[in-house]
Structure formats: C-alpha cells, structure tokens
Give the backbone structure.
Amino acid sequence: MKAKELRQKFFDYFRSKEHEIIPSAPMVIKNDPTLMFTNAGMNQFKDIFLGNQPAKFKRIANSQKCLRVSGKHNDLEEVGYDTYHHTMFEMLGNWSFGDYFKKEAIEWGWEFLTKELNIPEERLYATIFEGSEEDSVSRDDAAYGYWKNCFLNPVNHIIEGSKKDNFWEMGETGPCGPCSEIHIDIRDDQERKRTPGHLLVNKGHPHVIEIWNLVFIQYNRKANGELDQLPAKHVDTGMGFERLCMVVQGKKSNYDTDIFQSVIKEISVITGKKYGEKDTWDIAMRVIADHLRAVSFSIAEGQLPSNNKAGYVIRRILRRAIRFGYNNLGIEEPFIYKLVPVLSKNMGDHYPELKSGKDQIARIIHEEEISFLKTLGKGLKMIEKMIEDNRKTHTKIFPGKVAFELYDTFGFPVDLTQLILKEHGMTLDLEGFENEMDSQKERSREDASTEAGDWHIVSNVEGTEFTGYEKTEDIVEITRYRSVKLKAETFFQLVFNKTPFYAESGGQVGDTGVIIAGNDRISVKNTLKENNLIIHIVSKLPSDLTTQFKALVDNEKRNMTANNHTATHLIHFALRTVLGTHVEQKGSLVTPEKLRFDFSHFTKMTKDEITKVEEMANRMVRENHRLNVIDGISKEEAQKIGAMALFGEKYGDKVRVVEFGSSIELCGGTHVHATGTIGLIKIISEGAIASGIRRIEAVTASKAEEYINSKLDSLDEITQLLKSTGNVTENVSKLVAENSILRKNIEKFQAQSAALVKRSLEEKAINLTSFRLISEQIEVDSVEMLKTIAHQIRNSGIDTVLILGCEIEGKANLLVMVSDNLVNLKRINAISIIKEISHEIKGGGGGQPFLATAGGKNPTGIPAALSRAAELIKKL
Ligand code: ATP
Ligand code: MG
C-alpha cells in the first residue's frame, strides 16, 4: 500500500466513525510564545482542552505536520543515526472533545490496526499508566480492561509504564493525562522467538517501536506542579505516519518506504553513492532526506532560515544536512536544492503549499548552501592555521575555546573540527568546549527566561470580544489575570470580557493605553495574543479587580498605525500592478512610525518602478476609497471575492476581508475609514532580505511630511553653503571635481617639499662604517609629512638609519626608519630603538622593524631623544 493510500485509509476509517476530517494546521506557530513549532497534533486544540474556546466538532481526525527540534521534544540529534525518528513528521490523530473516551479510543485503534490494516495482533503491545503517588493518580485500570478485551492473549502484551512513558504532557504546564501507547515488534520470527517482544518495549530497539499514542486528557498541570481536573475529558491520539507506513509496507526502516525512497534515490544519482553500502553514507542520506522535508515545509509556510528564533532553528537544520553531505558524502557543491522537485512531486498532492512554493524553496536552500559551504571553507582554513601554530609549540591539544568560537561565530560544527584534528594527530579539549557551550546556554536562558504564573479566574467568561474595530474606548471587566516574570521584572497580564485594544498580530503592533476605575489609572504597555486570548500587559494590578474599567486606547498611536496599515495594502496592490502578480506578501511590520513590507520579486526594483508604485498608491490615497469590511466568511469564500490569501489560517477559521477600492485582502488589522486620511505615502527604502524576497520601507501622513521636509531642509542648507543660486546638482558636481584636482595638487606639493627636506637632511648625514645616520629635529605640520620624508629616504637606495623629531601642536613626535638591508642583515630594529627613546618625550609608540613612530607630551625632550638614539646606533 502506498503512503498516500494509507493516509486516506486512516481518514476513511475515522470518517466512518463520524469524525470530521480536517487539514493540517501550520507547522510554524505564530501566536504562541511558549511554542515555536507544532510538536504534536494537539497543539492547535490546546484552547479547546483548556476550555477557552468551544469545539466546533466533537470528533475530528487529521494528519498534522509536526517538527521536533527544540524545547521539550527534540529529536534532532537522533535523526539519521536511527531509522524511525524524524525532525518533521506527520502525526495521524483522532480526537474527541468531551465526547467518547478510553473505551472507543482503544477499540477503534485496535480495529484500525488489526482489521483494516491486517497487522498481526501477536506483534502488538499496549502500555498503560502504572499510576503516580506524587500526583495522586492511580493505575489506569480502565485502559487495562479495554485492552484486555481486545487482545486474544493478553499475557505479556499489556505492560505497565511509568510517568516518563505513560503520562503525556505538552509542556511544563497545560493539558495532560495518562496515555496508552501501542508498540509493534517487526523483527523476524526467529529473533522474536529468541527474545520475547515485551522485554524490548520502550528499550530503544529499532524494530520494537512505539507507533501510536492514545492520550486521555483529563488534567491541567498548573505552574506550581499540581494537577487540576479539566471540565471535560478528551481523547488525543497521535500515530507516526512514517512508522505506520514502514510497518504496512513490510520495511525495517522509515527511510525504505515510498515516502523517502524517491528522494534517497535522487541523492544517490547526484552523489554517485549507493544507499545501503556504507554506514556513513547511509546516515548522511537519511539526514539529508529528512532535513529537506523540515526545511522545505517551513519555507513553504513563510518561515525562512534566518539568524533568530524559528528562522535560526531552520537554518541549523539545513546546515546539519549540508554538513553531512560535505563530511560523509564529500560533496562540496550545493546540491540539496536539487532535491526539492522530487519532494514536491512526492508530497505536493496532499500539501499543495509544497507545489506552489517549489521554486522559491529551491532558491532559498540553494543560497543557504552557497553561503554555508563558504563558511565551512573559511573555518577549515582557520583550523589549519591553528594546527600549524600549535605544531610549532608542540601542543597536541586544541583549545576548546577556539573550537567554540569557530562553532559560534562561523557556524563551524565541532564534530568536523574534531575529525580534522584527528587527521593531524591532535585532540580537542572537549571539556573546555562544553564549558563554553554551557555558559552560553546559561546566558541565553537567563535572557529569555519568562516564568508565567497560573491564571486567576475572576469571572467565568469564555474568550474576549474585540470591539476595537468600531471604537477605541469601552467599558470592560477583568475575567482573568496572572503574573509573569521576565528577566527579574514582574508584569501582569489581564484578560477582559471585551476590549478595544488591538493585540499584536498580522505584523501590526499591539495597542497601548490606559484602564481607569476610580483613582486607579493603570497604563497598558502592550497588547498581545496568546492562542485566542487577548492579553493586556500592565505593570501593576488595580486595587479592585472585580470592578468595571474604562478602557482607553492611545488614539494618536492607533491612528498613525492605521495609516501605515492601510498604506501597506495600497503598496501591495500597486506592486502587483506595476511588477506583476508574482508579487506575494512575505511579511510585514506596521508601527505608528513606519511600515515595512516584504514581498516576492526577483530583481532590485528600478527607480522608475519605485516611483510608479508610489504614484499609484498615492493616487489611491487621493481617490479617498472608503473602507469596506466583509467579516466572518470562510477562506474559500474570501478567495472567490478575489482576496489575496495569506497562508497560516487554521481550518475552520473565519476570515475578514478588507477592501479599499480594488485592493482586497484578508486582514484582521485596524484601518483608516477612508484612504484620504493617510495624506501621503513616501517609500524610503527598497532592498533584498533573502533570495527572491525584497523589502520596502515607507512612511505616511505627518511622518512622510517630516521626512520630505528634512530632505528639503538639507537641500536648503547645501544651497546656502554653496552661496550660489544656480542648479544645486551642477554646483555640487563642480565642487567635487574641483576638490579632487586640489587634493592631487596638494599631494604633489607635499612630495616636492618632502624632497626639499630630504635633500637638506641628506646633506647633514653622518657616514658610519657601513651606513649613514641622519638624526635631526625638523619643522613639519603633520605626522603624514614625517612619514613621506622617511619613505623617500628609504627609497633612496642608500643604507640609512633615520631619526626624526618634530613638534606638532605642542606635542612631541619621533620617527625611526631603518633601511631594509640593515633590518635584514644587521638586525637593526626601528621598534626597539623607538621604545628606548620615547620615554624622553614622555610617550610611547611602535610600528614595524623598518619604520616606527612615537608620540609624547614633552617636546623639550626631543633633542635628548635624538642624541640617545644616535648613541645607540653608533654602538652597533
Ligand atoms: P518515541 O519514544 O519513539 O520518541 P514519543 O513518546 O516521543 O515517541 P509521542 O510524543 O507519543 O512519541 O508521539 C506520538 C507518535 O508520534 C509516536 O507514537 C510515534 O509514532 C510518532 N513520533 C514521535 N516522535 C517522532 C519522530 N521524531 N519522528 C517520527 N515519528 C515520531
Ligand atoms: Mg520522543
């Protein structure tokens, strides 16, 4: 059975059990500060489990894109070495929200595996939770009973497991509960006879592995570690699709299934190395095939590799793949990008974003490959130099600190460093490296540590109504609050029954303002969204939490932000008209001060194109289009109206369409009532941020006026400085040309006058046995001049030691020049001479063996310095 059919079979089965089949939610998470990537199917339903949001359907089944590369679930280092952990994988799940519970979950899971897929039941094992005294939770007798009814021969096939394996928690806090895992033994009959499977369950054997986890969510873990019963009980199951595929296709490794084989074959073709011939090759091919998926899906969702947060995680995954290609397969050219078409062909039917984003994904991977391969090259050179230096001093241990620096600044992997050192008979001070690594981790933990307390419920109102589209003032009540510690500072987060405050999202910053009750006047410093809650950040709590508050949004800031947000839409529309419909939004930032708009386009915009875009956007401003909003329609309906869709909506989300004339967009932001309010849009920069992605920055309204006025003011100042009424550009060009002629003349005069000084100095030279000595105090007005004279004498071809002193602006300056011959043959060194004599002028200096200078505070010491130098030279 092909992977595609298997996925469909799962959906069909659960559809027959009245489940609604829904598409995967995005893998890159935007609105949850506690999680960067979806790491389990349940993430998107967290609010339903917590009772913050009602469930639309009581039963759901889906296949969810998951990524386990950071935080609580991190399998990155396993990937490639084993055959059943991936970074990105699909998790098949069936869900009950307050509907069926353990009995049906277990029976259906059993039926699907043994009847629908015909997996022999003697190969299956089930685990149940043994209970925990610490949490006062007893053994899961109910689950045991249901499993017993399934298995014909339950002896040794139902195994008790500890909290580690059989109590599922999403994070430090949140919904959780006991779970029952299904494991499978895919070993050959002989092996199975030799060692019974139950002895290998949860023991890390590659052929006795967990495939399905049935989680019975019934608690909420609080910040203090205690468990609260949830208002309703839920089922959350997760089955590794790639593992199931391996079982059904009779393979021993996920990578042998049709999910990965086409990509692995392509790697073989490109590298000329066969999969299955050599361990190190196989590991590398698995790493590359796996990481390609993680990175491609992430880019398809708009999360590009970058230097921070989620982007950095993605960059590191891709770099790991590049490195394995470089190290194990010996490929020093970019090649991973060439695998994107095969991946897209293989998975694009179920995940259309892979198909539509194919070219861009390949381009971005290609660019990353080029730059990281350069890094690898640079790092190699640095290591070689270090090895050479260390060899001179006969050191066999390479400093951990340097290895860390290579890793941290250049992204140069430490295992590669070790490998190279080994080739040179050296070892790495690994402990030193790890110490550096630990202290860096510690530093970043301290920087990022936020500790959120539990929510205190003030009133039992679900969700928050956002009233900020119509008004910026409202009467509100607090429904819950909690304290949050960030870098030793404590804030409070408030949730209201309704709010006029816009929460940061869709690139638009959060509102600020105040809430007032009696004498309490509390400023709202920011408004954020966490899942579906709108959270107001304040630094102190009001004295009475149960009263009504007048909530006032900072109107000025809101209006300026609205100007910029609407301008973003107009610029987007103008870009698509001027450049073409390949322009798609890739990101944006809308603040009261300015706007930033990122979009796909391949080349730098010409000045003419920028002007056209600006003109068109400003024409739409003057046409004063009124805001038209269509709210609460489905994504598909919105697309029919012609709205430009953004990726990232979850299934079932209702969307909002914002229209200004011909500009139609999906958008949850706040806007002007009519475009005329914006007054003026001025684009202030255009540049690249990644391959095929450009960024425009612009200002509007009074900020645009300020920008233009300050440019005009500078122009006025220049005109005044020029003291001329003619054309400014012409005048400035003339000035620049004149300036360059003058500079050349000055250089010429300086050389001439240096030549004069040189000649008079040479006349005063004292001839010693094998060279001449010139030692004089002269008058020049710059150290540069002093050096010019020295260079001329150095180039004269006569072996000379030159000692010069001069006073410039009350300070003493010394110079020592030694002809190259004397440096090389007689070992006379200008640096040691200058060091000897500079204390006479109360100063210090340095330079190179042939030319050294010193500066000091005591010009009266110059003659003494000169005669001291002459003495030294004569002794040589
Ligand atoms: P394991 O112990 O094998 O790492 P887990 O306990 O981390 O599994 P769960 O968090 O219960 O797994 O996830 C549910 C299912 O998802 C697992 O039964 C497994 O089939 C699959 N799964 C988990 N992690 C991965 C991964 N890194 N790659 C592929 N499939 C995975
Ligand atoms: Mg795991």
Remarks:
- The longest strand covers residues 208-221.
- The two ends are 92 Å apart (CA to CA).
- The mean pLDDT is 91.
- The chain has 25 helices and 37 strands.
